[in-house]
Amino acid sequence: MNFKRSYLILAAIVVVVVVFFSSSMFFTIEPGERAVIFRKFTTGLDKEHVYLPGFHMIAPWNKLFVYDVKEKKREETMDVLDKNGLSIKMDVSIRFNPVHNRIGYLHETFGKDYIEQLIIPEIRSTVRRVAGRYTAEEIYSTKRSEVEAAIIDEARKVMEQNNIDLRALLIRSINLPNEIKMAIESKLKQEQEALAYQFRLEKEKSEAERKRIQAEGIAAYNDIINKSLTDKILKQRGIEATLELANSQNSKVIVIGAGDNGLPLILNNN
Q: At how many degrees (to 10) do helices 120-131 and 144-161 cross?
């Protein structure tokens, strides 16, 4: 009887302990989440073992850090200086997510606040660094894609070193002081007009050259023909033509030697 009573007391204690510590013992990791454990009294932060989505149970004195690893988007507006020290306002969008199997290392270095501690400062720093290598005109128009590619390349390297997968970075807009913007647009318009005029000139030159070459070819052809038409060749051609006509079915009179240069004279009776 005492044994049964002791068993019931022990069971009751276990139930109380389980109920009391259930919130820190049982975890459900949702899809799009990963977790790492911190073992307070033994090995500390386990960076290598990442908990996958599902139901998990841990000792109540340990702690599980759950990370949302789904892709996130942030939009930032920042003031940067161009190569000449001109102030430019840029709007940038970034998409990223933690590297799933590296969240232990991310947690050790930056913690759950990694977006504010790592992502935003590094993106701002990279944008300012790259923009400082170009003029406002290049950033605004002529080399915008190059600037964007350089920012992506340099930012991605930094993110990879810190266990972040940078999925995309886009410069949404670039805002310049109105007078600078108008000056750049005016210059670009003039350059486009100059290019169009140059294109027309080149086209006209090409057409004139084509006609010159064509005329020279025709003249050369005529010169060759004229030089080749000697009296003997003309007589030979006349004789050949006479023979062909003589073989035709139509009646005719052929007077030998009556034509110019001694060629036959053909009189058609029909």
A: 140
